[in-house]
Each structure stands twice: as C-alpha cells, then as structure tokens.
Amino acid sequence: MNNIILSASILSADFARLGEELRAASATDLDWVHIDVMDGQFVPNISMGPFIVETCNRITDLPLDVHLMIQQPERHIQSFAKAGADWISVHYEGNPNIHRTLQEIRALGCHPGIVINPGTPAAVLESVLDMVDLVLVMSVNPGFSGQKFMPEMARKIAQVDSMLKQINSSAIIQVDGGITSETICAAYDAGARSFVAATAIFKHPQGIAAGIASLRNAVR
Ligand code: DX5
Ligand code: ZN
Q1: What is the CATH number of the domain that holds 68?
Q2: What is the ipTM, given to two decimal places?
Q3: What's the pLDDT tens digit per position in 181-195?
Q4: Ligand 1 centroid, distance to 36 Cα (angstroms)
C-alpha cells in the first residue's frame, strides 16, 4: 500500500446507477469520494448540491471530499456539513471572506481545504495556509471533467509543498484535473499526495476497480 489518497470524483459517474457505481468504488481500496459542486456562476457548469452529498453519505462509509466551485460558499457550508461532508474545500478566487469561511468549516467539524485555479499563484495562500488541512491545486480550469492535465502545475505544487514545510504544516496537497496513470507521477513527484480523478476511474474501459488500481499502481 502506498501513501497516496485517491479521491474518486462522481462527476463522471453514471447518475442513473450512482448507488451501484459508488458501492463498486467503495469495495476497492479507494480512500475518498470527491463531490464537485458547481453553481453556473463561479464556473460555467451546474452540477450537484447537499442532497447528493447526503445521498453519497447513505451509500458509502468513505470520507466525503466536497469541492465547492460556487460564489459565496459561506452561505452553504452549513448545509454541506449537515449532509455529511468530511472535507470542505473552497476557492481562494472571488471570496473576500475566505478567512472566516475556513474558520467556520472547522467549527462545523469538517476539515477545511483551500483551492487555487491554474491562473492563481501559490503566493496568495500565505495568509491562510496555517488554517487548512488540505491545499487543492487545480490542474485544469474548473467546470468540467475530461480535460487535459496542465504539466506546468507541477511547479506550483512544489512551491506549495515548500511553503507548507516552512510553517511545519502537515496539510495534504491535492491535485484535481486530468489525473490519469500517465500524469499522476508528475504531481506525486512535485509533492501532491491526494489525487482526484473522475474520467480515469468512472470511465475506465475495464471498469471502476481497474481505474482505481491503475492509478495506484502508477505510483507504486
Ligand atoms: C473539475 C472538477 C474535477 C473533475 C475532474 O472542475 O473539479 O474534480 O471532476 O475530472 P477529470 O478527472 O476527468 O479531469
Ligand atoms: Zn473537483
């Protein structure tokens, strides 16, 4: 067993068979379930809300890793916590109340995570880095699954890694977007330890278990 945390994004699951697909994923050595929340404002796409988190919570015992791509996330974190989120990650971009929001996520009993888009430099994280349990470095522009990994994000992951080491933080670096058995190593070598994948897991030609195994085997 290696030291990576694989988080399966249900954005690419077949929603007509969500229970079945999530149970199949949970029967493997998968670590977390990633839930992509999109509001059609912060990102062009609209996806799912607390109701789906609550549904996943009934289907699986795995930790639920909720990625909020929404405006004013502070208005909704309580509903996501109540629905069963274990990790709640919010974007730095466009969130003037980010410091308070991260405090509130922790006060609600969840692990707070901060997310930065490809166009946002690592330096903005400095004032909130000691408040978070996870830093999510986006390796695609958020909004859709099935996009291509941006290799230049490896440098940003390495920067975040050294910023975390400087403050003796054990926060996890997560990477999200275009993670496949070909791209996962570049992110791992840069310092990421949690990997989100939608297409590589739920659309793997040999099935969900094969998708999870091929990601894990790629970094063994
Ligand atoms: C993108 C989402 C990702 C997405 C990943 O906005 O945050 O979690 O589902 O999809 P893949 O793994 O297909 O790039
Ligand atoms: Zn995501």
Answers
A1: 3.20.20.70
A2: 0.98
A3: 999 999 999 999 999
A4: 8
